[in-house]
Amino acid sequence: MPTSMDSQLENLRLALTSPEKKSPFTIANYIATAKRFLSFTGDKFPPTKGNLKRFFDQQRERGISPASQNRYFFELKKLYEANSWLWPLSKKDRPEIPESLPETALTVDEIKTLIKNRGNYSKEERFYLALATTFGMTRLELAKVDNKDIKNGMLYIKPVRHGKGRWAVVPGEIMPALMEYHPRQLGISTLSLIFGRILIKSGFEKRRGSSWFSIRVALLERLRVAMAQKGLPISWADDYLRFREASIGSKRLDAVRATLYRDTTSTLQEPYALDKIILQVHPFISFWQS
Questions:
Q1: Around 254, how many Cα atoms within 13 Å sit in the side-chain half-sphere?
Q2: Which one of 60, 127, 196, 253 is most buried, by most CB atoms within 10 A?
Q3: Helices (DSSP H) in the chain: which residue ranges?
Q4: What pTM, to 2 d.p., does this model score?
Q5: CATH for 108-288?
Q6: Is the dihedral angle over the CA atoms 147, 149, 154, 155 positive or is it negative?
């Protein structure tokens, strides 16, 4: 028999599919946030302004970023609208997002510790850590992975918003971590919680600015240095990590880029040639060896 919460969530689901249907990924995020909020408030419908404020206080205490809290604000507002509840908050109640968030890259030693402690993690946690440390995947990319994306020693990395997805070569070192878990698409908030659990199980405290992106930035910087040392264009590191020219990550190491960023892609005609070059100098793959 459906519960009150089931009814509220179904109303939200219907609102997200009419008149224009949102993507399954977007719907999953809205439903996950709404379910977390309704579980927090209990059987009080409609939830009060005090419920909302206490919920956001809890998110801050748990270290949830202002950007994520801001997203929760709009997702919960949609929940209220879908159930014909009066939205009790105003624009001034929206979580403030700092103009610039710190980009904290983890050190090689820190990432080595995360990988070496993989025996302490769940299959799910090992799976996503393996993808993040190998391919520098963003939280959104990780959230979109499902079981059919891994086959024949290859991983399909779906595009986040625009552009094309691509198949990437999976190194044998991480294959055991990928094969023991059967992924399904997750909400991005769930991915943040997984990262937090990995840090705790490795003995690290979650610090401001640390996230899946911290691994991505660390990998980008190390690969750029490796490309430079080999006399290869550092743009190949950006290409491997699917960075756009205008992205935050591609703006780092600009001084090095000015002298070494050059286009020699004509030498990469062989299928997956870039992957093979990157995997030869990859800074983290060896940490996954048994």
A1: 6
A2: 127
A3: 4-15, 24-41, 49-61, 66-82, 108-116, 123-135, 139-143, 175-179, 188-201, 212-229, 235-240, 254-260, 273-281
A4: 0.63
A5: 1.10.443
A6: negative
